[in-house]
From TrEMBL:
Stored SUPFAM superfamilies: (Trans)glycosidases
Name of this chain's protein: glucan endo-1,3-beta-D-glucosidase
Signal peptide: 1-23
Cross-referenced InterPro entries: GH, Glyco_hydro_17, Glyco_hydro_17_plant, X8
GO cellular component: plasma membrane; side of membrane
UniProt domain X8: residue ranges: 366-451
Sequence similarity: Belongs to the glycosyl hydrolase 17 family.
EC number: 3.2.1.39
Keywords, ordered alphabetically: Disulfide bond, Glycoprotein, Glycosidase, GPI-anchor, Hydrolase, Lipoprotein, Membrane, Plant defense, Signal
Annotated organism of origin: Citrus x changshan-huyou
Catalytic class of the enzyme: hydrolase
Gene Ontology molecular function, alphabetical: glucan endo-1,3-beta-D-glucosidase activity
């Protein structure tokens, strides 16, 4: 019996892991060049509340590392340009930094990348000559600690690293950077580290609004730009800029290096001259970006290629110099209210009306819906489970009922998953569904279809014995008569965890 159970558990765990298989990801940059930001502990709550799973910071601040310990949020940490010299000079400096400033907080703080230097081609000092030696010393320190496979070392770049970016196929690195770029690219290729690029269609538009269409920059162009050399069609500038990097890498025969976008975004406010810096445009850019990326659609030159992207930035940063827009890239105000709504699942409907609902008061309502990445089979399993043993009232998704339309598995499963979640304490576990549930803080209700909220109905039982009994006779859906036992395997980890609570 025990053995059988173990096997059962092993298989279900495998299924759960498969379900979590990582596609493209969306993270957020947590810049802290401001004097009015919440404490890192509060920020960690905010990040978790908004289901942000990847975070980039620009240093290795201990308070931040501590605040994100055991949150599950993956961290990209950084070594600022101003600190490169000691890292480049002596291996022992990198060793002691790792030992004293990182390892005490690792792996509780889930660090997966270290960026050594940032946009060194933009800096006026020596950074570019220091960056590769510093990267090598950090890598060697990680290797001594046995962590070089778990924590990747790279460095971020601006598009200024190229001398040419249009058409994308003509993308080429500026040869005046060759002295550090060549060893840098060799380092990345040798260690399977990504090339990190910060991409800003906003600046391209702002700086030449006559040559660049706003729609093209915002992912909503109805026309295409053709690359005359390759015949590839571009519908947005983001893809074109990424492909210019691909072609620049290919021109130097670095075909295996992947690209990661370590910053992109759109400001919500600017100086009078920066007319495109509005909350509407910022919301459109980031919403379309997320939809574009999590679809795993890739770019025209690399169809279907996964892409990890970080949105700049978490907060408006009042200490940043420069034009008004520089201080207004945030998704959140320092008081933690949203500047505009953004759905990290890439599914939600854009709605400006309830921007400020997400104040962090510990009582914010959340919903749990089906992941757009879930397979049909996973969605069906989740639906069958929730409406069967899960004791959810699924009458609203029956024909002619308010939540029947749209008649898709995704929509029906979302409704059922949410009801299950709300009836079972609205805990993360109740939203798990083998990795197919996604928490959202935007009400998914539409028209007359009302999604349940916490506390609305407490009648459901979270009793693990339910899996061995026949579904409750109150099951409303005739089509979903019974849940085949194999379907339960994907849910077993959830149930086991529930039991252990
Ligand atoms: C630049 O680096 C060289 C050695 O790499 C050093 O001698 C020089 O002082 C540095 N200059 C600045 C401005 O840091
Ligand atoms: C290449 O880089 C050098 C040094 O930063 C700069 O002066 C030059 O304008 C760049 N060339 C192009 C075509 O961007
Ligand atoms: C932008 O358009 C102007 C003319 O409208 C042209 O002179 C200029 O070269 C263009 N700039 C770029 C970067 O294509
Ligand atoms: C997502 O991918 C599908 C097929 O791969 C495609 O039809 C759809 O247009 C894509 N959506 C977006 C927003 O790119
Ligand atoms: C949201 O809150 C900010 C600051 O608290 C305020 O300036 C803004 O007007 C609010 N937006 C809406 C739509 O209420
Ligand atoms: C939550 O909101 C209530 C009423 O608006 C307020 O009294 C309370 O202090 C808030 N709690 C926190 C933790 O901010
Ligand atoms: C709670 O559930 C019961 C039985 O499933 C149902 O009759 C009742 O209408 C529900 N109440 C609410 C507020 O949804
Ligand atoms: C689960 O159901 C069994 C049998 O109905 C009951 O004895 C047990 O107390 C229930 N457990 C919980 C946590 O409700």
């Amino acid at each position: 019996m025990a053995r059988g159970f173990e096997l059962f558990f092993a298989i279900s765990l495998l299924l759960a892991l498969l379900g979590l298989c990582k596609g493209s990801t969306i993270g957020v940059c947590y810049g802290r060049n401001a004097d009015d930001l919440p404490t890192p502990d509060k920020v960690a709550q905010l990040v978790k509340q908004h289901n942000i799973k990847y975070l980039r910071i620009y240093d290795s601040n201990i308070q931040v590392l501590k605040a994100f310990a055991n949150t599950g949020v993956e961290l990209m940490i950084g070594i600022p340009n101003s600190d490169l010299l000691p890292f480049a000079q002596f291996q022992s400096n990198a060793d002691s930094w790792l030992k004293n400033s990182i390892l005490p907080y690792y792996p509780a703080a889930k660090i997966t990348y270290i960026t050594v230097g940032a946009e060194v081609t933009e800096s006026t000092d020596n950074s570019s000559s220091l960056v590769v030696p510093a990267m090598q010393n950090v890598f060697t320190a990680l290797k001594k600690a046995g962590l070089h496979k778990r924590i990747k070392v790279s460095s971020t770049h601006s598009l200024g690293v190229l001398s040419r970016s249009f058409p994308p196929s003509a993308g080429a690195f500026n040869s005046s950077h060759a002295h550090f770029l060549k060893p840098l690219l060799e380092f990345l290729a040798d260690n399977q580290s990504p090339f990190m690029i910060d991409i800003y269609p906003y600046y391209a538009y702002r700086d030449s609004p006559n040559n660049v269409s706003l729609d093209y920059a915002l992912f909503q162009s109805s026309s295409e730009v053709i690359d005359p050399n390759t015949g590839l069609l571009y519908t947005n500038m983001f893809d074109a800029q990424i492909d210019s990097i691909y072609f620049a890498l290919m021109a130097l025969n670095f075909r295996t290096i992947k690209i990661m976008v370590t910053e992109t975004g759109w400001p919500s406010k600017g100086s009078p001259k920066e007319k495109a810096a509005t909350p509407d445009n910022a919301q459109i850019y980031n919403t379309n970006l997320i939809r574009h990326v999590i679809n795993d659609s890739g770019t025209p030159a690399k169809r279907g290629e996964e892409l990890d992207v970080y949105i700049f930035s978490l907060f408006n940063e009042n200490r940043k110099p420069g034009l008004e827009s520089e201080r207004n890239w945030g998704l959140f105000y320092p008081d933690q209210t949203s500047v505009y709504n953004l759905d990290f699942s890439g599914k939600g409907v854009v709605d400006m009306t309830d921007s400020n609902v997400t104040s962090l008061n510990g009582t914010t309502t959340t919903w749990c819906i089906a992941s757009t990445k879930a397979s049909e089979a996973d969605l069906q399993n989740a639906l069958d489970w929730a409406c069967g043993p899960g004791n959810v009232d699924c009458s609203a998704i029956q024909p002619s009922q308010p939540c029947y339309e749209p008649d898709t598995l995704l929509s029906h499963a979302s409704f059922a998953i949410n009801s299950y979640y709300q009836q079972n304490g609205a805990t993360d576990i109740a939203c798990s569904f083998g990795g197919n549930g996604v928490k959202v803080d935007k009400n998914p209700s539409y028209d007359n279809c009302v999604y349940m909220t916490a506390g609305a109905n407490k009648t459901a039982a979270t009793n693990t014995t339910a899996i061995s009994s026949t579904p409750s006779s109150s099951t409303r859906n005739e089509a979903i008569a019974w849940v085949p036992s194999f379907l339960l395997m994907t849910l077993l980890p959830t149930l086991l965890t529930l039991k252990n609570l």
